[in-house]
Amino acid sequence: MTTSGAPATDGGRGARNPFEPAGIAFTPVSRGLVTARLVTVVAWLLLPAAGSVALGVLVGGWTWAAPAVVLAVLGWLLWLVPRQVHAIGYAEADDDLLVRKGILFRSLTVVPYGRMQFVDVNAGPLDRRCGVAQVRLHTAAAQTDATIPGLPPEEAARLRDRLTARGEARLAGL
Fold it and tell me: What is the pTM of this model?
């Protein structure tokens, strides 16, 4: 028992972690998503980096701070993106699909199989090159749509088929 009289759920340290449900093992996404996101980051920062270097060459002086800022942002994103991808995971429970994301701002989305309307699998050119696809679940409520990025294409197809079958089975029971 805790000092408040409530039973301890995690060895007396307070309430259970809402992002780690008991008995649920999350499956991580593919490391190919790290490559796809880093390529996107570098592509987006290439033009600002070139422009800030050109500004530094033409004007000189304090304008060299701009390339330093762009490089600092690039370094921070190179550090951050792998950690963000590592935080993404999904789990198939008996009655619903759980999707978790985030490092600082964490989220856990629970989508009941019976509430799914349809499941999309998407992969752009860069995603296909990096060997990843995205599965998106649509429900009647737009706020509960869930996306699982960075799945190998075979796993995305398997998950789409499995979720569709589970959704149809749960819907038939209504």
Answer: 0.80
Beta strands across the sheet bearing 133-139: 116-122, 133-139, 146-151
CB atoms within 10 A of CB 14: 12
CB 118 within 8 A of CB 146: no
Instruction: Find the CATH number of the domain harbouring 163.
Output: 2.30.29.30
Give pLDDT, residue 7. 43
Distances (CA, A) of 170 to 113, 115, 141, 165: 6, 8, 17, 9
As a whole number of angstroms, the distance between CA 73 and CA 41 comes to 10
Same domain, 116 and 155: yes
Residue ranges in the chain whose pLDDT is less than 50? 1-14
Same domain, 66 and 131: no
Containing structural domain, residue 157 = 88-172
